Amino acid sequence: MIASDKFTKNKYKIFKILIAIMLIFAVTIIVKMDYEIYDKPIATVTSVKSKYLYSKKNAGEKYEEKYYEQQINARLRNGKFAGKKVELKNQYAKSCVYDVKYNAGDDIFIDKLGENKGSLRGIPGGLKRDYIIAFSLMTLFILFIFIAGKDGLMTSLSLCLNLLVFYIVLCLYFKGFNILYLTIPMVIVFIFLLLVFLNGAGKITWIGFFSSVTVIMMVMLITRLVMAFSAKPDYDFMDFLIQPYSPLDAERIFISQIIIGCTGAVMDVTITVVITLTEIAARSDNISAKELFISSRNVGDDMVGTMIPVMFFTNIATDIPFFILSLRNSMTIHSIIVHHCFFAAARFLTGSIAIVISVPVAFSCTIIALRRTRRRRYAD
């Protein structure tokens, strides 16, 4: 009987895993074939012919880069020319640092599509990668649910809602709204949704919410003060900045990056401190504020010691390939750090400050909430 129950449970688990795998691949295929939802022409590469063009050495004559040209035949998948063949030309370097090498079967966006001498011609505009994102997100959600159960499901739902909010903010920004004024309420919504979905609308959620928002506001104030009394950074080196740009808009985007970048770490620290102190206070009504402060310091020491390295790697990791390539092309370390890595370093330092501030702020908010609770209890 016991063996039969185990077999049934194992069979049920295998069934759930198979359903999850089928769901992941079904969503991935649907997203891969969603050509019609795009206004920009998309074509699938049918054949590619590559030929060597030339080689070029860097300034130090140490490294040689080879360049190639591709003659690409593709079939359009959407738009008024859907189903027709299009001819494309693409040039790329062997390292593919700034270029893309296309292969048969790739879905690519087409720029400047038009008829020329009886045939369709255009310029490759990059790979269509939305199905990769869909596959990654579905895998993440399924793992959340399998590992964390109900909490994983609630986390996935809150993440979906946060992505929707982020999309709305981007749409409003491209319509001319101030990105900084959009980021502040967006981050507040992020914090609220995640805490409510994970912890419910209880006391701990509200203490963690007010603590996190307070820290974010303090970080923004510190950032503004530092930028007001220091030299302006060279925003030409900031990644993903739409050209041409205004210095004021670039400054707002930079501050928005800092706010969003430290939100997750701040929430993690504050909610951990709040939950710990609340549980300690619940077990002992006579515990003093000094003892709670010592407990918060102990929790803070453990959290800060792990969260700051996480903040470092999440901000600096994306610049490591560029750092290596720059050194290979004879750029000095000083130039790389001052110009190219400045924004990542600034986000790391500001995020670290936010993590450190989170501990005393969470402690203060928790003490205030506990004192109010005790006063109400004694009043009753």
How is this structure best described in words?
The chain has helices at 2-32, 130-148, 150-174, 179-199, 203-228, 247-283, 289-316, 320-328, 333-340, 342-379; strands at 42-57, 64-76, 85-93, 107-116, 119-127. The protein is α+β, with helices and mostly antiparallel strands and 380 residues long. It has a 5-stranded mixed beta barrel. Helix 6 packs parallel to helix 10, helix 7 (289-316) packs antiparallel against helix 10 and helix 9 crosses helix 10 (342-379). The chain is globular, with a radius of gyration of 27 Å. The relative contact order is 0.08.
List the helices and strands and how they pair.
Layout: H1 2-32, E1 42-57, E2 64-76, E3 85-93, E4 107-116, E5 119-127, H2 130-148, H3 150-174, H4 179-199, H5 203-228, H6 247-283, H7 289-316, H8 320-328, H9 333-340, H10 342-379
Parallel strand pairs: 3-5
Antiparallel strand pairs: 1-2, 1-4, 2-3, 4-5
